[in-house]
Write a structure and sequence with these properties.
By secondary structure, the protein is α+β, with helices and mostly antiparallel strands. It is built from three helices and six strands; from the N terminus they run ααββαββββ. The chain has one domain: Nuclear Transport Factor 2, Chain: A (Roll), CATH 3.10.450.50.
Length: 127
C-alpha cells in the first residue's frame, strides 16, 4: 500500500499543533499540554528520567513537574506525515548556558476528536 508522504497541508496542520503544544509547555499550561495527548491507557511517554504508560500516569506526572526553565529554543524541527492521519515530529531543544541539548519525538495520529500525541520520547545528550 502506498501512502502519500509529506502532504503540505497536513504538514502545516501538524506543525501548527506542535507549536501550540510547545507554547503551552513553555507557558506551564498543564491542562493544555495534557489535552494534546491521546486520552488512552495506551498513551506512552518516555522522559529524560521518567516513564508514563497511559494518560492517567502522564497527567499525574505532569501535575508534579516544575515549570520549564526560561529560554527554551527549538532547533531543527522536522515534521514528516504519512497520509492524512499520521505524523512524526522530531526536534532538538536547548536552554541558555546548558552543556546538554535535548531531543524530542512525538507520534501524532488524527483521531475522531482531532490530532493527538500517542507516543512521545524526550532525551538529552552532551553538546
Amino acid at each position: 500500500m502506498e501512502v502519500d508522504v509529506d502532504l503540505e497541508d497536513v504538514k502545516a496542520e501538524v506543525l501548527d499543533l506542535f507549536l501550540g503544544y510547545e507554547a503551552a509547555l513553555v507557558a506551564g499550561d498543564v491542562a493544555a499540554v495534557n489535552d494534546f495527548f491521546w486520552d488512552s491507557s495506551l498513551t506512552l511517554r518516555y522522559g529524560i528520567a521518567d516513564y508514563q504508560l497511559g494518560i492517567d500516569e502522564l497527567v499525574a506526572w505532569r501535575n508534579t513537574q516544575n515549570p520549564m526553565p526560561p529560554g527554551r529554543t527549538l532547533v531543527d524541527t522536522v515534521v514528516t506525515t504519512f497520509g492524512r492521519n499520521a505524523a512524526v515530529v522530531n526536534t532538538m531543544f536547548r536552554y541558555p548556558n546548558a552543556t546538554r541539548h535535548g531531543r524530542q519525538s512525538q507520534t501524532w495520529i488524527r483521531l475522531s476528536n482531532g490530532w493527538k500525541i500517542v507516543c512521545a520520547h524526550v532525551s538529552e545528550v552532551d553538546d
